[in-house]
Fold these 4 entries.
Entry 1:
Amino acid sequence: MNPAVPVPPAPVFTLSETAVALTLALLLLAPLALAGLALLNAGFGRSRSAAQALLGDLSIVSVAVIVFAAVGAAIAGNSSAAGHTFYLGGTSWNWIGSGPLFLKSFHIAPVQAQLETLFQFLAVALGAMIAWGSGADRWRLSAGCAAAAVFAAVVFPFGAHWIWGGGWLARLGANFGLGAGFLDAGGAAMVHAAGGLSALAVVWIVGPRRGKFPKEGFSTAMPGHQVVYVLFGCLLCLVGWLAWNTAGAVLWAQAPLTALPITAVNTVLSASAALLATFTVTRLRFGKPDASMCANGWLAGLVASSACAALVTPVESFFVGAVAGIATPLLVELLELALSIDDPSGAVTVHGVAGLWGLLAAGFFAPQAGQLLAQLIGIAAILGLIFPVVYLLFALLNRFIPFRVDPDGERIGMDLHELGGGAYPEFVIHRDESYR
Amino acid sequence: MNPAVPVPPAPVFTLSETAVALTLALLLLAPLALAGLALLNAGFGRSRSAAQALLGDLSIVSVAVIVFAAVGAAIAGNSSAAGHTFYLGGTSWNWIGSGPLFLKSFHIAPVQAQLETLFQFLAVALGAMIAWGSGADRWRLSAGCAAAAVFAAVVFPFGAHWIWGGGWLARLGANFGLGAGFLDAGGAAMVHAAGGLSALAVVWIVGPRRGKFPKEGFSTAMPGHQVVYVLFGCLLCLVGWLAWNTAGAVLWAQAPLTALPITAVNTVLSASAALLATFTVTRLRFGKPDASMCANGWLAGLVASSACAALVTPVESFFVGAVAGIATPLLVELLELALSIDDPSGAVTVHGVAGLWGLLAAGFFAPQAGQLLAQLIGIAAILGLIFPVVYLLFALLNRFIPFRVDPDGERIGMDLHELGGGAYPEFVIHRDESYR
Amino acid sequence: MNPAVPVPPAPVFTLSETAVALTLALLLLAPLALAGLALLNAGFGRSRSAAQALLGDLSIVSVAVIVFAAVGAAIAGNSSAAGHTFYLGGTSWNWIGSGPLFLKSFHIAPVQAQLETLFQFLAVALGAMIAWGSGADRWRLSAGCAAAAVFAAVVFPFGAHWIWGGGWLARLGANFGLGAGFLDAGGAAMVHAAGGLSALAVVWIVGPRRGKFPKEGFSTAMPGHQVVYVLFGCLLCLVGWLAWNTAGAVLWAQAPLTALPITAVNTVLSASAALLATFTVTRLRFGKPDASMCANGWLAGLVASSACAALVTPVESFFVGAVAGIATPLLVELLELALSIDDPSGAVTVHGVAGLWGLLAAGFFAPQAGQLLAQLIGIAAILGLIFPVVYLLFALLNRFIPFRVDPDGERIGMDLHELGGGAYPEFVIHRDESYR
C-alpha cells in the first residue's frame, strides 16, 4: 500500500436493514450478562461484603460507560472513523481511532458505525466488572471505580480499535496475509482476556484476603456466601452471551443471518460441555462435584465461545468448551496453591485464560491459512502490551487511591466499613471466627 | 379545523416491516422491568413482608392487564381508533379513545395499532406496580389490587389516550403550534409520573409504618431487608428500560432505525450519571455512600431517560441523569423529614419527580419551538387533572376496601397476616424489637 | 397419497428475512425461562438442597442440549429432513426424522430448518428441567442427568418429530382431514406435558420425601424455602414465555407478523387470569391466598397458553388461563391427598395437566373442522405412547443409577450429601426437627 494514501476504514460491508434491526435487538438483550455477572461477583464473596459488591458493580458500569463515551469511544473508533497510522517497515500501522470526544457525531454516523460503538459501549461495562469479583472482600469501592475509569479510558479502547476499529490487528490479514486478521467476534480478547488480566493485576496489587494463606498449613477455603446467586447468574449470563456472540458475529465477523443459529447453538454447547467437564474433574478430584467451580466452568465455556462460536462447528464448540471446563478447576487450584493468588470469583482463569484459549481455538479451527498466526500475534499483543500497561496503570493508581481496605475494615466487612450497613440487615449470619 | 369533520387519528406514519418486527422483539423484552421492579419493591420492604410484596406485584400485574384489556384499552385507543372529541374555544379536544371493549377487534387492527396497544398493555402493568412498593409493610393485598384496577381502568387509559392515542395533549402541536405536541416516548408521564403520584396518594392514605415517626426524636431509619435484590433489580431494570425507550421511540416519536442506538446509549448514560451523582451526594452528606439510595438514583436516571432518551444528545442525557441523581437523595430526605412521608421504595421521588423532570428536560432540549410549553401543559395536566383524580378515587376506594392493615397484622408482618406464611421459612431472622 | 411416492417434508412455507431475524431474536430471549424455572425449582425445595437443585438445573440443561445435538436432533428432524415412514392402512406414517447425527449439516440447512432445530435444542433443555423440581430434596444429581439424557435422546425427539418435524401427528390434517393436524405452537406437548409426565414418573419412582406422609394423620406441609425465588422466577418465566409463544407461532403455526402482538397479549392474559383464579380459590379454601400455589397458578396459565396463545382471542385466553388457575390448587391437593404424590414444585399439575389442557383448548377454539379430534389424538399419543415409554425408561434407569438418595443423605440434605457444602454457608438456618 502506498504510505501516502490515507488508511481507509476497516473492511467495509453494509448491513441490511434487517441485520441492523436484529443486531440492535440483540445488543439490548446483551446487558443481561451484566446482571448475571454482578450476581456471580456478589455470590462468590462474603455476606458481609455483598452490598458493596453489587454497588461496586453498578458504580463500575456507570464509570466505565461514562468514561468510554467521553474519551474511550474516540480512541476505539469505528468503521466510519478511519484512525491514525504510523509507518514502520513499509507497512502502515493503524494504532488509534479518530472518533470525536463525547460521542459528538454519534447520531450522524452511519447506523453500522453506531452499532459498533454501542457494542463497545456495553462491552466496556462488562469488561470493567470482571476484575471487581477478584478483588472481593478487600478492594475499596473508590479504587474499583478509578480502575474502571482507566480500563474504559485507555486499556479497552486501544485494544478495541486494534481489533474492531480497523487497527493493526484487524489488518494482519490485509497487510500480511494472515487469514482474516485477528478475529474476535464476541469480545473474548478485550472484554474477557483483558478483564481477566486486569483481575490478575488487581489480585497481585491488593494481595490475598486476611486468613486466606495462613502461615502454617494449606490455604483456607472461603466458599462464596450465596451459591444460588452464583448458579442463577450463570443462566442469566447464558442469555446475555447468546446475544453478545450473535450480535458480534454480525458486526465483527460479517456473519450472514444464516450463520447465526449455529452461533447460538455453539454458545450453549460450549458452556454445557465446560460445565460437565468441570463437574467430572471436581468429582474425580474431590469425590463430589463442586458447585461453585462448576459455575466457573460454565462461565469459562461461555467465555471461550466468545471468540469462536461464530467460526466453528457444534462438535468443535463442544471440544472448545470441554477443554475450558477441564482446565478451569485445575488452573484455579494451581493459581491458588502455586502462586498464592486469592481470586474469589476465579476471573483470572474464567475470563483471562478461557478468553485466550477461545482466541487460540478460533485460530485452530478457522479455515483460512494464517489465521492461527494472526490469533497468536493478537494473544501476544494482549499479554505483551495490554497486560503490562494494565498492571502499571493499576499499580500507579494504587499509590494515589490505595486499593486495599485497611485491616479493620476487612475484618468488619466491606459493607459496614464502606457503606455503613449490610446487605442482609434482618438475617442472622454465622459468627464463624475462622472466617474473620 | 372544521369542527364538523371527524377528528383523524393521531399523526399517521407507517412502520416498515422491519420496524414492526424490531418493536415487537423489544416489547417482549420490556417486561424484564416488571421483574426488576418487583425485586426492588420486595427488597426495600421488610423480610416479614417479602412474600406479600412479591405476590402483590404479580397480582397487581394480573389485575392491571386484565382490566386494561377489558376496558382500559378502549379508552386509551390507538392510531386506528380515532377517539371522541368535544369543541371548545374553536378547537376540537380529543379526550377519549374509541376502541372496542375486551380488545375485540385487536387482531384485525393494523399491526402498528396492535403494537401501540401492546405497549400500553405492558406499560399499565409497570405503572400499576409502582405504588405497591411505597405502601410496603402496611398496604393490604386486596386494596392494592383494587387500586391497580382503578389505575388500569381509568387513570392510565385517559392519560395514555391524551398523549399516545391522538388526544388533546398529542395535538397541542397541530392545534396550537406547540412543538410536536406533548412528547413522551418511553412512558415517563403515564407510567412513571402517574405511578409515582399514585404512590404519593397511597402513602398519604395509608400513613407511615408503625414506629417510623416516633413521638419524640427523629424518624426511624428502616433499611430494606435485602440490598442484593434492590441492586440486582436495578440491572434487570436497565435491560427493560433499554427496550421500553427504544420501542417507545419507534412508536411514539417516529424514530427511524438510525436514531435507536443513541437512544440506548442515552438510557445507559442517564442511569449511570444518576447513580454516580447519588453516590457522591450521599457520600458528602453521610460520609459513606448509601447503597439503597444509589439504587434509587440509578432508577431515577432511568425514569428521567424515559421521556428524553430519544430526543437528546449523550451529553444532555448525562446532564438529565445527573440532575435526577442529585435530586433523588435530597428529595427523599425532604419528603421524609419535612412532610413525614414514609415511602419505603422512594417511588414518589424516583418515579414521580424524576418522571416529571424527564418530561421537562425533553422540552428544554427539543429543537422545536414551543416544545417546552407543550411539556409544561402536559405536566400541568398530570399534576392538575390526573393526580387529583387518583387521590380522590383511591380515597374513595379506601372507604370500601381499607388500604391499611390493622396494627396487629402490621406487627406480625404482612406475610403471616395476609398469607399465613413467610418468604423465608427456614432462615433465622433477627428479632429486632426496635423494628416491631 | 400414493404410497410409492416419498413423503415430502412438513408443510412448506418460506419465512421472510424479517421473520427469520425476529424469530432468532425471540429464540435467544426464550432461555430466560430456563433461568426462571431454575429459581422455581430451587425455591420450592429446602434450603439444604438449594445448591444441588440449581447445579442440577445447569447439569440437566447441559446434558439435554449435548445429547439432543448428538442424537436427538437427528430423530426430531425438521422441515428440510423429510423423515422415514411406514405404510399401514393405506396411509404413510412418518415416525422418525432423518437428520444427521451431531448436527452435521446444520450450517448448510435452510435457515428456517436451522431455526426449527434451534427452537427444539433450547426447548429440550426446558422440558428436561421440569421433572427436576418434582424430585427435589431426594433425587440424586447423577440420576437426574441420566434421566435428562434419556429425555433428550429419545422421548422428546420422537414427539418433536411427530408434531413439529412433519411426522404423523402433524399430518393428521393432510392425511385424515383433521383440521391443520395436531397443533402445538409453543411447546405445550413435548416440553410441558411430556415434562410434567416425566415428573410424574419420577415422583412415583423416587417416592415421597421422608416425613411427608406420616403413618398417622395428614400429610405434612413442606413449604418451599424461598418464596422470593419462586415468585420472581414467575416474572422471568413470563418474559421467556412471551418469546417461546411468539417464536413458536412463527415456526409452527405459520403466524404472520400481524398475528404476533395478540399472541403476546394472550400469553400475559392467560397467566394473569390463572394467578387471580388460584388466588381466589386458595383464599376461599384456606382463608388466605397461598403465595406458592399462586406461583403455580401463574405458571400453569403460561403453560396452557403455550398451546393456544397463537390461536385464540384475548377473551378465550383469559378463559383458558382461568380454568388452569382454578384447577391447579385443586389438583395439587388431590394428587397429594388422594394419590400420596409428593411433588414439591407441582410440575405434574403445572406442566403436565395444564399443558394437556392447553392442547385441548386449542382444539376447542380453533376454527377448523376436526381440530378438536386432532388434538385429542395427540393427547392420547402423549398419554398412551410417550408417558409409558418415559415411565419404563426411567424405571429401567433406576435399576442402574438409583434415583433416590439414601436416607442419611436425605436427612442431612442434598447439598451436604452430594456437594459437600451448602448454598448458604453464612446464613443461620432453623433447626426445625419436624422438617428432618
Entry 2:
Amino acid sequence: MKAFGEQYQQRSARDPATENDAPSQRRDPREPVPDFDTPFRAKLYDLLRWRRDVRRFKRDPLPEGLIDRLLGLACLAPSVGLSEPWRFVLVEDPARRAAIRTNFETCNAEALSMQSPDRAALYARLKLQGMDEAPVQIAVYADRETVQGYGLGRITMPETIDYSVVTAVHTFWLAARAEGIGVGWVSIIDPAGVTAALDVPQDWIFIGYLCVGYPQAEDDTPTLQRAGWEHRHGTGDVILRR
Amino acid sequence: MKAFGEQYQQRSARDPATENDAPSQRRDPREPVPDFDTPFRAKLYDLLRWRRDVRRFKRDPLPEGLIDRLLGLACLAPSVGLSEPWRFVLVEDPARRAAIRTNFETCNAEALSMQSPDRAALYARLKLQGMDEAPVQIAVYADRETVQGYGLGRITMPETIDYSVVTAVHTFWLAARAEGIGVGWVSIIDPAGVTAALDVPQDWIFIGYLCVGYPQAEDDTPTLQRAGWEHRHGTGDVILRR
C-alpha cells in the first residue's frame, strides 16, 4: 500500500502539523483542572435524561450566532487521529429544503409499506421529521478522504472517520439541549439524494440530517416510548463479561 | 422485502412494546423540567474541552459499581428507532486481554511500516493504547440484527445502528470524565480478531475497544497535538451553506 504513505507525505511537505502546532494552541499551565463536582454531575445526568430526538418544533428563529457557537463546541468532539472529518452543511435554500423533504416522504412511504399489518397504523401516526417547522437544518457529512490526522488510527477501521462525526453530532445535540434547543436526527432518507440536492462532494459520507429549533415541549421520556412504538430496556441484556 | 415485515411481526406477537410500556416508565408530570443555567453550561463546555482520549492510566481499580452506573448512563444515548443496539463486553480474562493486545501490536506494526519516511519516527514514539495499565477494558459492539425498534429509521441507513452505539460510547466517555475517569478508544485493531478472542456473535459489528481508568494526567489539549502529530483546525473549513 505504497499510496498510503505517499498521500500523507505530500501533505507533510505542504503543511507540517508541527509548524502549525503553535504555542498559543497549548494549554496555559496556570489554568486549573476543572472540578466536576456532584451537583454538576447530577445536572449532567439530567441533561442526558432530558435530551430528546425532537420532531415538533416552534418556528421561532434561533439567537444570532448560536448555531455557529454550537458547531464550534461540536468540533471539541473526539476524532480518530485528530482528523476532525466533520462537515456541516447549513441547508437554507427553500428549493433544496423542498427536495430533501420530498426525499424523506418517498423513503417514509416505502417504510410504511414494509410495516407488518399490526404496526402499520401506529407507524403512520408517528411524526418522523420536523422539516416544515425547524428554523435550522443541517446535513452532516464525513470526509473519509481528509489527509488531516495522517491516517492515524483508521487503517483497519476506516469507518472510525464516520464515528468521529457521530460524536460531533452528539456533542452538538447535548450542547444545544443545554441551551433549550431541540435536535431531531432524520435517517429515513436516501443519502445519495441528499448529496445531489446539496451539491457537495460525492465522496463525502452522509451521516444524518438534523432539524434544529426550540421544541414545542420538553420531556424525559423518548417520543417513541410515549407513542407506544418501543420502550427502553435498560442495561440487563447489553452487558457481557468475558 | 416481505422478510422485513415478517421479522418484526414475529416479535410483535411475542413482545408488544405497548404492553411493556408501563406507566412506571412514563415521566412523573410533577417533575420539573431541569433548568440548564449559565454556570452549568460553562462547566459542560469545560467537560467537552477537558475530555481526552487517554493512553496513560494509573493501575488503581475503579470504585465498586461505578462502571455499571456509567454504562447505565450510556444507555440514555439516542438510538435509531429506540433500538438500543449497544452491547458492552467487559474484557476481564487475562488470556483474552493478551490476545487483543497482540492484535493491536500486529496492526500497529503494520501501520508503522506504512508511514512516510518523515513521519515514521514520530509515529513510533506515540503511545496508542493503554491496555497494560487500564483496569477496565470494554469491547463495544452494535447488534444490527436486533428486532428492538421494529426497524424504524434504519431501512435506508442500516449504519445508524452503529451510529447509535457510537453515541452511547461518547455518553459513557463524558460521564466517565465527569467522575475523573479517563477513556481511550483504540481503533488500531482487527475487528474480526477481537470478535474471535471474545467469543461473541459473529454478526455483531465491532465499534471500538475502550481502555478505562484514572488518567496519569489531565489536560485540555489533545495528546496528538501535544505530541506534534496533528493540531486542531477549528470550524473555518467545516461549515458550508447551501
Entry 3:
Amino acid sequence: MILTGNEIRAQMGKNIVIEPFREEQINPNSYNLTLHDELLTYEELVLDMRKPNRTKRIKIPAEGLVLNPNQLYLARTVERTETHNFVPMIEGRSSIGRLGLFVHVTAGFGDIGFCGYWTLEMFAVHQVRIYPFLPICQIIYHQVVGEVTEYSSNKYQNNQDIQPSMIYKELMPDWEAGGDGQKTFDFEPELVTAESREG
Amino acid sequence: MILTGNEIRAQMGKNIVIEPFREEQINPNSYNLTLHDELLTYEELVLDMRKPNRTKRIKIPAEGLVLNPNQLYLARTVERTETHNFVPMIEGRSSIGRLGLFVHVTAGFGDIGFCGYWTLEMFAVHQVRIYPFLPICQIIYHQVVGEVTEYSSNKYQNNQDIQPSMIYKELMPDWEAGGDGQKTFDFEPELVTAESREG
Amino acid sequence: MILTGNEIRAQMGKNIVIEPFREEQINPNSYNLTLHDELLTYEELVLDMRKPNRTKRIKIPAEGLVLNPNQLYLARTVERTETHNFVPMIEGRSSIGRLGLFVHVTAGFGDIGFCGYWTLEMFAVHQVRIYPFLPICQIIYHQVVGEVTEYSSNKYQNNQDIQPSMIYKELMPDWEAGGDGQKTFDFEPELVTAESREG
C-alpha cells in the first residue's frame, strides 16, 4: 500500500521527516522534492566499480544550466528526509520525464531507515536547461510487512552532500580507509599549447 | 499491495475504467496497454523548463517506423483510463525492454484520480522498428492507505492527445495563458538549396 | 506492502525460492542478486519487433570488462528465483546507478509465479568496468490483493539462459516454430580491402 498525500502529512514528525516541508509540495500520493544548486560529474576516462572515481563540482546558476546528453550528472535534493517503518522511493515527475530527463538510473528505492539527502542520477536525452530549486522528483512511501531491521551502512547513511558511488568499499573491503578517496591519473595530461604546436 | 489481474477485472467499472478493455490483455498482476499510431518529437535546439517547447507530429505507418537512438519520442496509449482509490502506474514490458526501448523516463507513477490517455516517453538504445497498436507497456495498480484527495490539475487531467511537458506553467505561473503555447525561433532557419550552394 | 528483509527470510522455501541464497545479501527491504559472467549483444543493424534478432555472446573475465555507452547488454542473474503469491520486482542498486549503469529498461516488474533467472538489460551512460558475480541489483517483493492466476507463457518461464526479446512470437503468432530463431541478412556484407579500394 502506498501512502496518500494526506497520510504523508499525518505521518510527519512520526515515521517521516522531510526538512524543509511545504504544504504545497504534497501530491495525491507523493511529495515533490526540489533540486539543490550543485552537480557532480565524474572525471575519469573509464569508471571502475573497484575504485573510487574522481568527480568535479558544478554550480547551477539562477539563470539555469544546460545539461548535455551522454553525460551523467549527480545531484541532490534540497530536502533531507528520514523514514522509519516505510520504504521510501524516489520517482521522476512526469513533467520532467516528458522533457527526456532521467532523474535516477534504475535505483528509485531507498531502505527503511535511510536518513539523508537523496542523490539523483540525472541523464538527459536532449540538451535541456534546468534551474536550481525546481521540483524535480517525488518521494513515494510504501507500507511494509514483516519485522523491520533499519538501514545502517558506512556508505550513504547521514550523508551531507551529493554522494558518488561507493561500491568499491564493498567490492574491495581492504581499500585503504585513510586515503582521500581519489584515484590518481596514471598518465601525463597532454600539454598542447599554440607554441608547442608550431614547434 | 498490488492488484492481481483477477482483481483488476473485478474492479472494472467500479474504481477502474480502461477503454477499450480486452480480456486477453490481462496479466497475472497488470494489464497490457497498446501504442497509438502517432508520435511527437521536440523541435528545439535546447529544451527549456521555463518555456513551452515546440513539437512535430509523426505517424507510425502499418509497416512500422524505425526509432533512432538519442531521440525522445512522445507517444500515447490507445486506451483511456480512469483510476479511483488506487495508484495507477505504467511499466515497460520485459519483451520491449529486452530490445533496449524505454517507454517512460523515470516517471511511471500516476496520481489517484488521473483520467486520460497515458503519455509515453520513448527512448531507444538501438535503432528499432515499432508498429502501431502493439502492446507496449502495462498498467499496475497499488492499493493506498490514508484519506484520498484526487488529482486535479490544469496540466494533464482529461487530456485528449499526447501531452508534451507543461512544467513551464508551474515554474512561470504568469506565462501568457492566451498564447498558442508555441515558442518562436529567434533565428532565421538557414536556407541551403542546390542553387545557393553552387552560387 | 513490501516485504522486509526479515520477511523475505521467513518466506524462503515457502512462497519464495532464491538459489543460491546467502544471508549477507539480505537488505532492509530487498535481497541483492548477483551478475553472471556472460552477456549477450544484438547483432542487427535495426532491431525488429516482428522478427527474432540475432545475438552474440560475450564472457566477462575475472579482470572485468568495460561496457560502452550506446550499447545494450543483456545479462542474467546468478540466482534462479521462484515467487508465488507475491509480485517480484528487480531494481538497480543505488551504488550501481550512481555510476550511470542502468540494469533494466523500464521493466522491473515480474509476474506472480515467474520461475527462472532474471534477464538484465544493461545500458551505460559512460564507459564503466564491471566484474562477474558482483551484486548488481536487488529483488523486491510486493504483497497482492485478489485471486491469483500464476504466470505461464511460452516466452520466458523456466528459462535456462539470458533471454533476448521474444515479442515476435506474440506479434507474429504464425512464426515458423521449427526455425532456428535466427534472422538471415538479406544483403551481402560489403567487402572493402586495400586492394579493391585501389582497383
Entry 4:
Amino acid sequence: MIRILVTGGTFDKEYQETTGRLSFRRTHVPEMLRLGRARLPVRVSTLMMVDSLQMSAAQRRRVVRACRAAAEKRIVVTHGTDTMAETARALGPRVPGKIVVLTGAMVPYAFGSSDGLFNLGSALSFAQALGPGVYVAMNGTCFPWNDVRKNRAEGVFQRRRRSKA
Amino acid sequence: MIRILVTGGTFDKEYQETTGRLSFRRTHVPEMLRLGRARLPVRVSTLMMVDSLQMSAAQRRRVVRACRAAAEKRIVVTHGTDTMAETARALGPRVPGKIVVLTGAMVPYAFGSSDGLFNLGSALSFAQALGPGVYVAMNGTCFPWNDVRKNRAEGVFQRRRRSKA
Amino acid sequence: MIRILVTGGTFDKEYQETTGRLSFRRTHVPEMLRLGRARLPVRVSTLMMVDSLQMSAAQRRRVVRACRAAAEKRIVVTHGTDTMAETARALGPRVPGKIVVLTGAMVPYAFGSSDGLFNLGSALSFAQALGPGVYVAMNGTCFPWNDVRKNRAEGVFQRRRRSKA
Amino acid sequence: MIRILVTGGTFDKEYQETTGRLSFRRTHVPEMLRLGRARLPVRVSTLMMVDSLQMSAAQRRRVVRACRAAAEKRIVVTHGTDTMAETARALGPRVPGKIVVLTGAMVPYAFGSSDGLFNLGSALSFAQALGPGVYVAMNGTCFPWNDVRKNRAEGVFQRRRRSKA
C-alpha cells in the first residue's frame, strides 16, 4: 500500500473564474490516478492545500509528523516546488526505514501542458523501487534529500554539488 | 543515459481526419518528455510503428536485437499493450546486465484522457531505480517479464500467478 | 429555444479501449454547452448515433421528419461530415419557415485537437442570426444547402460553384 | 474578409512557470482558427494585451479608432470580460455601417476547460450573419451594445433590461 500525502502546490492550483486568480479546491490526485489507470493499492490524504512559499514552519512539521505516523512504509508527498527541497531536508533524518518521495509540478495539472501526470507516475514508481530514504522526484529523475535544490532561474531541480553520480 | 526504443502501439496512434481511422505518424515521445520537463539524458529511437497485434516474429526479434545492441544499460520500450507481455518474454533471458522496461497506453496519447504520460514517467523511473531484468510498467506498477499478462477483459496488467509478492 | 438534434458522426466518436476502435456512447453536446457556458435555452435530443457513411435512406428521412416535427423554429443538427451535404439537400425544400444548421467535426470532440467546440459555437450562432433556410456550418462559415460539398481531398467544405457570393 | 482585433483579456492569459502568475505572451487566436479549421479569409491584429480591468481610457479609444480605421466591414474584437460591455458602449455609436462583435472567455484558452474556442466560433459567425451594429457574443448568444452587462456574481452576460426581445 502506498500513501499519498497532498500538501497542494502548483500541482493542484486551479483557475478561479470569479476572481481571475489561482486557488485550491479539492486535490486532483484521485482523478490523475484514474487517468493513469493506476491499479496498485493507494491511500490519498490531503494534509493541507498551500502554496509552498506560504508553508509555515508549523505546517512543515505537520508534514514530517504525518510521514512518521503513516502506517505505510512507502509515501509520496505532493508539494509546491518552491520549498520542496526544504521539506525534503526536514524529512531526511526523521523517517527511518521509510521511502518518502516528494513531487510536484511546474504547471498546474488543471492546465493543458502540465508535468503533473508525468511526475506523479514517476514518483509512485520511485516510491516502489527505491530503498529507504527521502527523495525529490522531478524532471524525470530523483534526487536524494541532502543533495537537491531548485534552480529558480531555469525552473528545474538539480543536485547541489557539481559532481553528479 | 537512458534509451527509449519506440515500437508504436496505442501509445502513439493518432486520428487520421481523411480516413477516419487511427494511424501512426511520428512518435510523441519527445513531446511527452518536454511536457514532463524531463532533464535526464535520454536518446529516443523509433524502431517501428506498429499495432502490437500486427507485430511479426521478425519484428519482435528486431526489438530484442535493438535492446541487446544498445550502448545504454537502461532501456524503455514503448509498445502496444496487446502483445507487450510476449515481447517481454522474448527479451527476458536475452539482455543480461540490462534494465529493460516496457510500457504503453490503453488510450492514445493524442487523446484527452490518456494514461501515456503517466506510464512514460513511471517507466523512466523504474528504468533508473530497478536492478537488471526485464519488466512491464503499466497501471502504476511494474511486473517481472516472467510473471505478467494482460487481462483483456478488464484492460489491465496483472501477475500470472494469484499469489502476489 | 434552440433545438439540437444529434445524429452522431465524427463529432461524437470515442476511443474504445477494449477494442481499440472508435465507437459511440452518449453525445458530448451537453458537456460542450457547459464548457462554452452557453446560457441560451437549448433542448438536446439524440436521434441516432451513426457514422454518416452508414446513414441509411430511412435514417436520413428520420432526420427530416424530426426537423419538421420539432416545435422549435431554430435547429442545429450534429452530423457526420461525409454525407452532411446530402442530408442538407434532403432538408432543403422540406422545412419551410425554419432555420436548420448542420454541423459536425473533422476530429472527434473527445480528442485534444478537435474543431467540435468551435463548430458548435458557430452553428448555434448562425441558427440565431440567419433567416429561414437550411445551412451547413463548417470551417468557420456557413453554406446554403443547395451550394455545398465536402472536398474530401482537403477535408473542408466549399461551395459547389466556383463563384462565391 | 473578417478582421480580428486582439486586446488580450482572460481569453489570452497564460500560466507563467517562473513567477506562478498569469501573464500575456502572443495571442492564441491564430492557433484557435487552425484548430477550428477556419477557412474564411481572416486578418488578425494584436492591438494590445491587457486585462480589461486595467484598460485605460486611452487604450479603449485606441480600440475604437482601430475599428473605425479597419478596411474590413466585419470585425471581431477579443477582450477581457470585465469591461467588455464598456468598450461595446464606446463603440456603439462610432462605427456606422460596420458589424463589430466583441467576445472573450471566462477561462483562459490555455487551460483545459475554456469557453474560448466556443466563443470565437460564435463571434465569427455572428460577425458574418448580423447586420450593422455592435454586439457582445458570450454564453452562446449575442447582445446589442446598448443592452448588455456582465453579471459578476454569476460570471455571465445578460441584457440590462428584464424584458428580453
